[in-house]
Amino acid sequence: MTAMFEEIDHRDTRIGVLSLRRRRLTRDSKDIWEIKLDEGYLMSSQFVEGEIALATLALSMVAGDRLRIVVGGLGLGYTAKAALDDPRVAHLSVIELIPEVIGWHREHLLPLGQALTSDPRCTLKEGDFFALSQADEGFGDEAGQLQDAILVDIDHSTTHLIHEASAAFYQTSAIASMIRKLRPGGVFALWSSDEISQEFLATMRAALTDVRAERVEFYNPYRDEPGFNIIYIGRRA
Asked: Which superfamily is assigned to 47-235 in CATH?
């Protein structure tokens, strides 16, 4: 019989105490995988519809094949896996700040670890996505290589930040700098757990075209109404 709760790993890291946990709501329910940072939840497999939609909505706007995709934030891997499920994707670079999260995938401690690490199209890279998005050398792959899509799922929202150092990314100048790493017609998309921010939509419209915010709803057993995530999407002209 599978235990109702198990702490898989527990690490002291440079940004706080990180823990990987598996739990069940009932004996017969599916496992829920969680990563916590100190007392806050970074991610949970209980609600992944938004993470999957981040990839599927963005890639539905991308034309062509042999696509190159960058994902900012590995987490439990659902956005990366959804991107790899598109057969047009030829190269996926996933940038994750926390090396322990990458290690859990490589050690197959997480459900999607083997699928991601065994796919030759997928590269997991330790790094600061926000810094790399502003760097002249791009995301650390071939110099000057433009991307077909850049997908970001790091902070809880554009104002609910994991660390205050990322606040500058949500400004017009930073978005404009980042999208220079997209090919013309390439797509930028960002996940958020908060209500739609008209201010951030205006920030995106200053640098991108075809900007919109999609509301992705899902069943939440803890509330009387559906849960939701917001996916912001725009295209480089």
From this structure: Vaccinia Virus protein VP39 (3.40.50.150)
